[in-house]
Specification:
alpha/beta, Rossmann fold, 2 domains, six-stranded parallel beta sheet, 13 helices
Length: 383
């Protein structure tokens, strides 16, 4: 009997985000582990550009999901997806997901359904909640979590946050939820950037803010930090893969004021290659994010030798020692740590290599014979 296939459903690819790389990493792990797979994509109606929305395109995301699932259902009907095969969605927030358990039940095609949970209505700073969708969207999430066979989480904190929310009340799904870590490939990142360990000896006094310009990323903290050190010949750089300014905070006028004053630099439309060149020569990656995250941007920067200075408000504490963590909203604490690591940068690469096996952890949950360690014990979180 042949080994069950993985029916892999990638997120639509956006050059300005991490999705193309994630796709490549997942395919690499499937091949490396000799797992048979079918990769099923949806249709793009917006040339895979984010023109409406923050994280994914407002029109493009649902259209892509629905056409992607239509493709899966067609494959089921044609007999290409058989009982025991594993559907693997890289984002469980997939519009139309409920069609799969419906077809499974009606046709008695006993497929398994797994998905990675990036965030949801239970995260107060997630855009779903901030835009007022929670009253109806939480019920959809409840149905999805109940219908699927497994849900993967990047962080303990986000998982705990979900289980404390009313979305999970009276919903017996604990056995379906798995802590796997955030999927990354640090060796891929280093190779693409041309990074060598000796690059650490040639770092410049550059501090990078790598996040979207939305309120929950707290760009105001970075601007205050830049103001404080304005007398130093240090470069404070805000980066974006977008070709035009967007977001909810702060205003374009405010950013232009700081640019004109020479306090910050703002680099738009960076390709991955250009962004990685910047990280290779930068000393510090700075995060003040309020939305819970392990942080693709943080993992990229640490892979390329940047020392992290990060808030204690999100999941950074699950892989970074406390000496790299400042008290959320405490400017003086952030100032002290930035000063310390500008003078004495530290290589933190060893703390993040465990996430290189996150995809393997997901595949192991699906039943494939892969030897991989569990994530280390993580902090107990308090509200």
């Amino acid at each position: 009997m042949s080994e069950p296939k993985v029916i892999y459903l990638p997120i639509e690819g956006y050059e300005e985000r991490y999705t193309n790389q994630l796709d490549a990493w997942i395919v690499e792990r499937l091949k490396k582990n000799h797992i048979p797979y079918l990769r099923v994509c949806g249709e793009a109606i917006n040339e895979n550009k984010i023109s409406t929305g923050q994280v994914l395109d407002g029109y493009g995301r649902p259209y892509y999901c629905l056409t992607q699932l239509a493709g899966v259902i067609h494959l089921m009907k044609m007999g290409d997806i058989k009982p025991g095969d594993n559907i693997f969605m890289t984002d469980i927030w997939t519009f139309g997901l409920e069609a799969l358990p419906y077809v499974r039940t009606i046709t008695q095609n006993k497929i398994n359904i797994y998905g990675f949970n990036c965030a949801g209505t239970f995260e107060k700073k997630d855009f779903l909640n901030l835009t007022g969708m929670t009253p109806w969207a939480k019920h959809i999430e409840r149905g999805w979590f109940k219908a699927v066979d497994g849900v993967f989480f990047a962080s303990q904190k986000l998982m705990d946050m979900a289980f404390r929310s009313d979305m999970f009340q009276h919903l017996d799904v604990a056995e379906k939820v798995h802590l796997t870590g955030l999927a990354t490939n640090t060796k891929y990142i280093r190779k693409l950037a041309g990074y060598e360990s000796s690059d650490r000896n040639h770092k410049e006094n550059i501090i990078v803010f790598p996040h979207r310009l939305d309120a929950e990323k707290r760009l105001d903290m970075f601007l205050k930090l830049a103001q404080w050190f304005h007398y130093r010949e240090w470069r404070f750089i805000i980066t974006s893969g977008r070709k035009s300014l967007y977001g909810t905070s702060p205003s374009l006028k405010e950013i232009k004021h700081y640019q004109k004053s020479g306090i910050i630099e703002f680099k738009l439309g960076l390709s991955k290659e250009t962004y990685y060149k910047l990280l290779r020569k930068s000393k510090i990656i700075f995060s003040s994010a309020e939305q819970d995250t392990v942080g693709n941007a943080m993992l990229e920067a640490i892979s390329l030798g940047c020392t992290p200075v990060a808030t204690d408000n999100v999941s950074y504490q699950e892989y970074l020692p406390k000496e790299f963590i400042y008290e959320h909203g405490n400017l003086q604490d952030a100032i002290c740590k930035v000063t310390k690591y500008m003078e004495h940068p530290v290589d933190c690469y060893g703390y993040i290599k465990k996430y290189d096996r996150s995809i393997d952890r997901m595949l192991k949950v699906m039943g494939y014979p892969i030897k991989v360690d569990k994530l280390a014990t993580v902090p107990k979180w308090e509200d």
